[in-house]
Amino acid sequence: MQVLRGRAHKFGDDINTDYIISGKYKFKTLDMDELARHVMEDLDPDFYHKIRPGDFIVAGWNFGCGSSREQAPLVIKHARIGAVLAKSFARIFFRNAINTGLPVVECDTDQIEAGDELEVDLARGVVENLTKGVSIPIKPLPPVMLRILEDGGLIAHFQKHGGFKLEGV
Amino acid sequence: MGQTIAEKILSQAAGRQVQAGEIVVARVDQVMAQDGTAPLAIQVFRQMGGKNPFDPKRVNLVIDHSAPSPTESISNLHKMMREFAWEHGCHLYDVGDGVCHQVMVESGRVGPGCVVVGADSHTCTYGALGAFATGVGSTDLAAALISGRLWFKVPETIKVVCHGPLPPGVFAKDLILYLIGRFTADGATYKAVEYTGSAIKELSMEGRFTVANMAVEMGAKVGLMEVDEKTWEWLREHGGGEFTAFSSDPDAVYAKVVEFDLTSISPQVACPHRVDNVSPVEKVAGTKIDQAFIGTCTNGRLEDLRVAAQILAGRKIHPRVRLVVAPASRKVYLQAMREGILATLVEAGAAVVTPGCGPCVGTHNGVPADGEVVVSTANRNFKGRMGNAKAEIYLASPATVAASAIAGEITDPRPFLK
């Protein structure tokens, strides 16, 4: 897996899926590029325009809590965010992100401030904060999730294996 | 070693003995998706190479989040769901049939020992029937739709012992808000919650659904309850099939056991903008409101409408307040009509809307204005949840919401119930 590089956009704890993409938009369309324009809108109306491709969302505890809407990781991906870094993730969001191929990174985000330049190396399991000169270890993914992510998400996993191929992983 | 309910159900569904922490690929008994998640699931189903669902009689598609459709783009997504259901012979619940979780628990197809995945986070509601039921995203749902299976990490269980009885004027909603206030929004992340104790046993099935429904608001994967005579009676009334009930072994291993004394709690209110920002009603009483809402998969059932009618009978709502009521299902709607509950509510000033999720999720049927305050029986009060980030949402029981609609401010319902 390639090394990702970008700037940090910082958010707090318990960022829920309604904040990521409001229900008033998400039910309307399957066009994720259109929905992506509203990413995080209720927290920061200009957020979409602040993103440079490859930038990171960096948050605290329990990122992605709330609904099961898969539009949440999809709009983040379609807003060209490279990965989400958080101290912990809500369960359904974490699965949805892996299934749709959005890298999610569990690590100590207290060592990252808004605007810091980061390098995320998933293979080595480390985030390099280039601005601060610190290395932050990543909590490893469970092997089953790693298999799905390596296959390119669950759609690609099914296309490749014709169903679940996870036993013995 | 002894097993928890969650371990037993997943052992059976995986065909081998499993313990917390293991990964299993397990059989699913029912799958469900609603109009906010099904269109994406159908699209992914096709991308994955899906031709036919594994068993159409175990597939449930529910049009509830924007029902009837408020816009042409949503109408087209609804059409996509209908055509898929008709083509494959899946169960379709169309406009007016009700909120997905209520129609599922009324279907008779969900019961003890079942594994259910739903593309909606409040699928955990069916834990009240002893089912391992959990919310998933559209891609996981599509995988289950094709294969009839899904992978799960067998969760550790937190046992929550609730000592009752609840005081008069304090309801299932107050109980679960109180627990969430103590656990916080991620207090049970990745875990199964097993609710037990006299306060749970005394609840009706409807009240138990309210409690199981909000397990996800503390991060839990499932919110399970032990099966008893009330469970079987509910299933008999709703034409339930054959099910096998599981209970935890005396030597089952829990992540932790937490006990709560609920015998002297007050009605509870979750304040903006977090579900775990919970206070006793006394602390927030007097907060002016503009809208009140009774409905949702949490509190739109018959006993919820019944207690609201009891409070509103012969009274009028405050002249500056709107009261929106959405019965949770067609069955609830009809029974509320027959009992005269709806007449009482409408005479008091309520606007009754089609059974569905609209007001709770901000799609239509009651979006608040800038700066307005809503008191609602729903399960989430996140900023923007009801469609306007400049509004504030308080969550409470149907009794508290009804009393507040009369007073025009958040109000302790207990004096109205004497």
From TrEMBL, chain B:
One of its GO terms (molecular function) is 4 iron, 4 sulfur cluster binding. It comes from Ammonifex thiophilus. Its EC number is 4.2.1.33. [4Fe-4S] cluster binds at residues 297, 357, 360. Heterodimer of LeuC and LeuD. Belongs to the aconitase/IPM isomerase family. LeuC type 2 subfamily. One of its GO terms (biological process) is L-leucine biosynthetic process. CDD domains: IPMI. The lineage of its organism: Bacteria, Bacillati, Bacillota, Clostridia, Thermoanaerobacterales. The keyword Transcription does not apply. Pathway: Amino-acid biosynthesis; L-leucine biosynthesis; L-leucine from 3-methyl-2-oxobutanoate: step 2/4. Catalyzes the isomerization between 2-isopropylmalate and 3-isopropylmalate, via the formation of 2-isopropylmaleate. Pfam families: Aconitase (PF00330). This is 3-isopropylmalate dehydratase large subunit. InterPro entries: Acnase/IPM_dHydase_lsu_aba_1/3 (IPR015931), Acoase/IPM_deHydtase_lsu_aba (IPR001030), Aconitase_4Fe-4S_BS (IPR018136), Aconitase_4Fe-4S_dom (IPR036008), HAcnase/IPMdehydase_lsu_prok (IPR011826), Homoacnase/IPMdehydase_lsu (IPR006251), IPM_dehydratase_rel_enz (IPR050067), IPMI_cat (IPR033941). Binds 1 [4Fe-4S] cluster per subunit. The keyword DNA damage does not apply.
